[in-house]
Design a protein that fits this description.
This protein has 145 residues and is α/β, with parallel strands linked by helices. The protein is built from four helices and six strands; from the N terminus they run αββαβαβαββ. The chain has a six-stranded mixed β-sheet with strand order 2-5-1-6-3-4. Helix 3 links the parallel strand 3 and strand 4. The radius of gyration is 15 Å and the shape is globular.
């Protein structure tokens, strides 16, 4: 049994193979994961039923498992209000640099060869997609037994 709360074997495998600068996509249930992800990325589907598992829940677990150096979110067209999910991510990720991308810019970023992992959730909120860039572990944070 692992000591971490992150137990999903596919997610663990993809994260173990990813390094500094690799990206992780947390996709809502509307995201076109079959066409808008990097071809080398591992895709993990956690979308069992609408709303059952959302991006925020996955983010909370990942933030305890890996360092994040940057984040990107998909935003609606100019003039539309900011979706609540974005404010929530900004709060959870502070002080991590946080950038916004339009829909098609976001798709292009997620198609990058740097995408190591795409996690598809059942989040039913619109514009609830999040692209994380993996950082480096701070010196002295590795614990050994």
């Amino acid at each position: 049994m692992l000591l971490t709360e992150l137990l999903h074997p596919g997610i663990l495998e993809a994260l173990a193979g990813a390094g500094h600068g690799a990206r992780v996509l947390l996709a809502d249930g509307h995201y076109p994961a079959s066409t808008a992800t990097g071809e080398r990325a591992r895709t993990v589907h956690l979308n069992l039923a609408p709303g059952l598992l959302d991006v925020t829940t996955v983010l909370d677990v990942l933030l305890r498992a890996l360092p994040v150096e940057a984040a990107h979110v998909m935003v609606p067209p100019e003039g539309e209000p900011e979706p609540p999910a974005i404010a929530e991510y900004r709060s959870k990720l502070a002080p991590v640099p946080f950038d916004t991308l339009g829909r098609f810019e976001f798709y292009d970023a997620a198609r990058s060869p740097d995408l190591a992992l795409a996690i598809v959730t059942a989040d039913t909120r619109t514009y609830a997609n999040l692209l994380l860039t993996i950082g480096v572990r701070a010196e002295g944070t590795l614990t050994t037994r």
